[in-house]
Every structure is written in C-alpha cells, then in structure tokens.
Amino acid sequence: MASAEQKEVEENGSMISGLLDKAKGFFAEKLANVPTPEASVDNVDFKGVTRQGVDYHAKVSVKNPYSQTIPICQISYVLKSATRTIASGTIPDPGSLVGNKTTVLDVPVKVAYSIAVSLMKDIGSDWDIDYQLDIGLTFDIPVVGDITIPVSTQGEIKLPSLRDFF
Fold it and tell me: For residue range 60-76, what is the model confidence (pLDDT) as tens digits?
C-alpha cells in the first residue's frame, strides 16, 4: 500500500514539476520580447578644467518605448585610453526617461589632474587621445525589474592645453 501512495506522490510531483517548467518557459519567452529603452552616445566633449581635474561631458540619447516615464536607477561609466582606465564613476538616481520620447542625458566624466598630466606626457604634439567610453544605464522597468543597457563609443578627445588652465 505504501508503494501505491509513493507512486501517486511521485506522479503528482512530476506533473507539478512539468507545469513549473512550462510556466518558466512561458515567462522567459514573454520577458525576452519586452521592449527596452535604446541608447546611443552622441558625442564626448571637453568642458573645462576645475580644481578637481579635467571635465568631459558625454551626451547620451535614450529612447523610451513606453508611454510612462521610466526611472533611471543609476549611470555608471568607465573612460579608457589604450586599455588604461583614466576615469570611472557612478551617478545615482539621475532622473527619468519621458514616455514615448528621446531623452538626452549629460554624463559628466572627471579625469583627475595626476592622470591628465601622465596622459600629456605620453602623447605627441596633437593633444588628442584615443578613448573608449563604456556606459551602463540601469532602469527600473515595472514587472521586469532593473535592467542595465550597455552603451560604448570610441573616438578622440582633446586634452587641455596650458591656456585651458589659465
């Protein structure tokens, strides 16, 4: 009698396990097709010199596919030159994306003086450095949760000259 009960429990457990697997597959398929914001870096510009270092600003355009605003949890960035990290940081709670529109975000990147001076020693007379900027935009999308969209760009930026300091 115990073996009949055990067999029934195993069959019920197998049936529940099969239903859970089907539910997981259904939700995974639906979540894979959920639209997410699309982002691109428009440009990276030299903004100026402050007491803390050299300021650059990246303009990032983000298109919101939803009619509701989406909160931006954080923006993280890493600025590299020749695989060397020259600046990194996180901007917590920078605002929200407007519904069904493209929002332009300004991502300030600060390079410390010590790093800027070492870069100046390594470059030639053109005062340009090749860079790679990696940005991670983290959004809180209802039902789905937090998602991070990676955006990357490469190019050349100017280092400040002596007249920028004075």
Answer: 999 999 899 999 999 99
Q: Which is nearest to 115 in space by CA: 160, 151, 147, 75?
A: 160
3-state secondary structure of 165: helix
Put simply, whether the predicted model's pTM sits higher than 0.90 gets the answer no
Structure tokens at 47: 């903004």
For residues 77 and 84, the answer to whether their CB atoms sit within 8 Å is no
Q: What is the 3-state secondary structure (H, E, C) of 136-164?
A: EEEEEECCCEEEEEEEEEEEEEECCCHHH
Say if CB 136 and CB 76 are below 8 A apart: yes
Cβ atoms of residues 44 and 77 within 8 Å: no
